[in-house]
Amino acid sequence: MNKQQIIDIGRDVLTIEANAVTEVGRSLDDNFAAAVDLLAKTRMRVIILGMGKSGLVGRKVAATMTSCGTPATFVHPAEAGHGDLGMIRKNDVVIAISYSGETREIVDLLEFIKRIGVKLISITGFKHSRIARYSDIVIEAKVEREAGPVNFIPTASSTAALALGDAIAIAVMRKKGLSEKAFASVHPKGQAGRNLLKVEALMRRSRRIPSVKITAPMTEVIEEMSEKKLGMTCVVDEENRLVGIITDGDLRRLIERSGADFLSRNAEQVMTPEPVTIDKRCLATEALNLMEDKKITSLIIKNSNRRVEGIVHLHDLWRTEMF
Q1: Which of 42, 97, 226, 229, by CA, is between 20 and 30 Å from 128?
Q2: Residue 160 near residue 141 (C-beta atoms within 8 A)
Q3: Domain check: are 214 and 120 in the same one?
Q4: Domain containing 287 — which CATH number?
Q5: Would residue 185 count as lying in a domain?
Q6: How far apart are CA 5 and CA 275, in angstroms?
């Protein structure tokens, strides 16, 4: 087998699986919507069942649903009959993944599931199978062919089931109206959570904000900048509204121009008016991009009344390890 033949095999497998996902997507109907509605309303957990490749898909679907704000767990059907059935409670919702719809280990659990009154959603390639007949909602995920040479190895079917699980998880998340903040709260250590951090979560507030009045002498400006250690200070008017900013760079340039006479100035005479600001609801990544674009190390957060609410410094963003 030469190099081109190997590449052709890879492309063929990917094409078959991509087509399978596309076809399953086109076949979605009211059953998909009903499943999403049911899952969005449940106050308990979602239990995922699956054997073999479907079991591996089920573990991933459970992880995705949990990360999207719907508590879910995978229960191995073969272990369920040896005590793990205790994990399934009356108000849970069960999702059974079985392409054939005849998986013995899941079929053996159907009577128990019905007896305790648990709602059952099945993801299967055969809507007239035993598991489908026992289900309250059937989502058909039939594929034209598997990618293997004997049309037997679960490839396209497991890929389609995996994509369908992702579709369910995201649809439920949106149905429940979960926000970026809720998603970030369950990803505190992950890159996804860091990317969704808002400026509000990182900004320095209250007494940690360097600030002087426009009439403040330079000695007071230097003292405030030295105490707060951010290399800058906000300048506010008598109504505490933001009017400007003074940075270390401003002081250096002033000393170069005026020498010792710089101490005779006040904050208003030295400040840079209309400093760059950002809204506290913006993403931290937006703050970082703005700092890089403007070549600055601090951003001021002000409210609609032009009063300073906080300061976010480049070091605050570094600590999140977002870059």
Answers
A1: 42
A2: yes
A3: no
A4: 3.10.580.10
A5: no
A6: 61
Instruction: Report CA Rg, the chain.
Output: 30
Other C-beta atoms closer than 10 Å to the C-beta of 74 total: 21
Same structural domain, 172 and 27:
yes
- Amino acid 285 reads T
What is the torsion angle, in degrees rounded to the nearest 10, for the CA atoms of residue 230, residue 233, residue 234 and residue 239?
Answer: 120
What tokens does 70 get? 């719907």
- Domain end among 178, 207, 229: 178
Q: How many CB atoms lie within 10 A of CB 289?
A: 12
Q: Taking the model in full, what pTM does it have?
A: 0.64
Residues 198 and 281: their CA atoms lie apart, in Å, by: 6
Interval 194-205: pLDDT, tens: 556 788 888 999
210 with 95, same domain: the answer is no
CB atoms within 10 A of CB 301: 24
- Digit-coded pLDDT (tens) for 226-258: 999 999 999 999 999 999 999 999 999 988 888
Q: How far apart are CA 104 and CA 98, in angstroms?
A: 10
Side chain identity at 28, as an amino acid letter?
L
Q: Which two tokens stand for residue 25?
A: 């997507």
Count of the separate structural domains present in the chain? 2
Q: Is the pLDDT of residue 302 over 60?
A: yes
Mean pLDDT, rounded, for 136-140: 97
DSSP track, 12-60: HHHHHHHHHHHHHHHH--HHHHHHHHHHHH-SS-EEEEE-HHHHHHHHH
Give dist(CA 137, CA 22) in Å, integer: 21
In CATH, what number is assigned to the domain containing residue 15?
Answer: 3.40.50.10490
Concatenating the DSSP letter of every residue in 118-187 gives -EEEEEES-TTSHHHHH-SEEEE---S--SSTTS-SSSHHHHHHHHHHHHHHHHHHHHTT--HHHHHHT-
- The per-residue DSSP string of 81-121 comes to TTTGGGG--TT-EEEEE-SSS--HHHHTTHHHHHHTT-EEE
User: Can you say how many angstroms the Cα of residue 296 is from the centroid of all Cα atoms in its chain?
Assistant: 28
